[in-house]
Amino acid sequence: MTERRNTDERPHGLLAGRVAMITGASSGIGAAAARLFAREGAAVVLMARRGDRLTGLVSEIEAEGGRAAAAVGDVTRPDDARRAVATAVDRFGGLDCAFNNAGYATVEKSLHETDDEVYARTMDVNVGGVWNCMKQQLPVMLAGGGGSIVNTSSTAGRYATGASVPYVAAKHAVLGITRAAAAEYGEQGIRINALVVGTTRSEMIDAVVQQMPVLETAFIAPQIQKRMASPGEIAEAALWLCSDRASFVTGTAMPVDGGISAQAKAGS
Q1: Is-catalytic flag, 159?
Q2: What is the full per-residue pLDDT of the chain (268 aa) written as tens digits?
Q3: How far apart are CA 4 and CA 115, in angstroms?
Q4: Which residues contact 22 (CB under 8 A, 6 or more apart)?
Q5: Bridge partners (DSSP) listed for residue 149
């Protein structure tokens, strides 16, 4: 059953009356964004592989008066991405914005010791996932007269941060996709930006630090702010880029990194 899109239902908030799709929504930045976007008036379609977590998050959002739907799936599978976008159209009438946030990282010692399977999975999730989702999101946004897409990159997308080679390569590629697509679709009313995210206290980072505890200090050492971000801090940046407050912002790689970009010696 399709709900009629009505800006009067939740008249307040930066995304009042909008429909948003968020990937990697079962934990960390994605879950924080789901809660925040819903509080700011959006109907949210949440995509991740762990259906039990999505179901719980949808119930939480609805209990607070928000609108949400779960789209269980893997961003590496084009059909799953298609079904998630179809959920937005079928349930809420369209798609206005998307936060392509799903990611994957592991701790690897060096390139020649990295399994091919790790390389493939890292590229499939971080790059292929953005590609698959955008291919489905863009036609709906074009039909609706415009929209906004935010892709999650990383400081590893601009510098050799010490993260694994596949992860650095993948996050560089996310910036390339973002910039090229922004140029291609800008005149058609779609803004496309990326977040250059610094180390964030999330399930993925906790798992990496657990494997190699020395990384917790190493991650924050180059930053001006000597701490990890909370998932909610990154979600706030994504919210702004998705909203009309960022109406003249497209094709950018926006640092949300505790100041590491200000101190990095490498070129941007």
Answers
A1: no
A2: 445 444 444 458 999 999 999 999 999 999 999 999 999 999 999 999 999 999 999 999 999 999 999 999 999 999 999 999 999 999 999 999 999 999 998 877 799 999 999 999 999 999 999 999 999 999 999 999 999 999 999 999 998 887 899 999 999 999 999 999 999 999 999 999 999 998 888 777 777 777 777 777 777 778 888 888 899 999 999 999 999 999 999 999 999 999 988 876 544 4
A3: 48
A4: 30, 33, 34, 37, 44, 45, 46, 47, 98, 99, 101
A5: 98, 192
Please report where in the chains the tokens 């590491």 appear, as a residue: 260
pTM for this predicted structure: 0.91
Catalytic residue from among 119, 159, 167, 185: 167
Q: Contact, 203 vs 26, CB < 8 A?
A: no
CB 92 within 8 A of CB 19: yes
